[in-house]
# Entry
Amino acid sequence: MDFSTFEWTRTPAACNIESGKIEVTTKPFTDLWQRTYYHFRNDNAPVFQTETDEKYFSFTVKTDFNESHHRFDQCGIVMYLDSENWLKASVEYENEKFQHLGSVVTNCGYSDWATTAIPAGIKEMWYRFSRREDDYCIECSKDGKEFSQMRICHMSRGGGKIKFGIYACSPEDSSFKAVFSDFELTECKWQAHNGQQPD
# Structure
């Protein structure tokens, strides 16, 4: 991918970009979350994105988080439109036994979190982010070949020009290096629904 079209919304502690690989070092106390349940609002995680008005595409990236070690350390894909409209998917470190594979969708200032526990020994994950107009699909894979659906969602402000890319953050007093590689931008691999016809 051409990283010259990408821009930081907020900069991380450090970043190195070379030959299709991006290394990001997180800053402590950085996160994305809006209101729901916790009642706080966090909007300071670094996101590295490019812009498009293409209505149908898929974006795939591999994440390596071998250095994550503190609760909520995370890295993954993101579509950050503004502080109250965005989505993300990642693995969040929890403890030495398990971590959370999940996604957050924030529409009009309220976040939700869909998650499942996975073994703490998993330290790499591929994500595929697909767009069909203003609907989106997030998938994950342990090997970059077989992908499983994590979520389908609608974004209330996701019908026009969007920004998408990667992010890494450490919501508590921590810092770690996240490595992103195997970037791929393709035609939409999320096929049109084959079943009940739309209204």
